[in-house]
Amino acid sequence: MDALINVVIPVFGLILTGYLAGRFEVLGPESAAALTRFVYYFAFPAALFVFSARAPIDRIFNWPFIGAFVAGSGLTLLIALIMVRLWFRHDLATLSVVGFAAVFGNVIAMGLPLLLTAYGPDGALPAIVVALVFSVLFISSVIAVLEAHARQDHLPLAWLRSWLAHSCAIPW
Fold it and tell me: How confident is the model at residue 62, as a pLDDT?
């Protein structure tokens, strides 16, 4: 019960306060846009840098944790792709975006404040590791699939070549 009172209620209370401020136009659309840009371009990157720079390298490369995240996300992605393909018959580009949406977790915007409140500075590292792995693995894959689809380059080997070129900066 202490975790609920000390962690969840303050974070969601802050979210509710932000929603109400937007709903009743306390700050206005210009202020909300400026605040969003500040958080996205300055506050989050600075927080991610500080917390990851202070962490021991062996805690960042926690392979069992990374493996569990990738396996769980991969299974979720596979289920989403199969279900959406069977039900809606979407093309590859749409499937990649739907799969991305299925595995996307708001790890930074929601997870980071919750973990920091619950566990202090040590709690930030799992969210940071997940965000980095997610960015490298899933975002780059979706971009490669969308680019290959835009070029009408649907062959699996061409997709792999495109993904490697985008992910590893290998000129082909």
Answer: 92
Q: Does 170 score more than 70 pLDDT?
A: no
Q: Using one digit for the tens of pLDDT, what is the confidence trace for 95-105?
A: 888 889 888 88
User: Band of the pLDDT at 161, cuts 50, 70, 90?
Assistant: low
Q: How far is CA 152 from the centre of its chain?
A: 27
Based on the structure, what is the number of domains in the chain? Answer: 1
Number of Cβ atoms within 10 Å of the Cβ of 145: 21
Pick the closest to residue 116 from 51, 43, 62, 45 (CA basis).
51
Range of the domain at 31: 2-168
At 25, is the secondary structure helix, strand, or coil?
Answer: coil
> Mean pLDDT across the chain, nearest whole number?
83
User: For position 117, what pLDDT does the model report?
Assistant: 84
Q: What is the 3-state secondary structure (H, E, C) of the chain?
A: CHHHHHHHHHHHHHHHHHHHHHHCCCCHHHHHHHHHHHHHHHHHHHHHHHHHHCCCHHHHCCHHHHHHHHHHHHHHHHHHHHHHHHHHCCCHHHHHHHHHHHHCCCHHHHHHHHHHHHHHHHHHHHHHHHHHHHHHHHHHHHHHHHHHHHCCCCCHHHHHHHHHHHHHCCCC
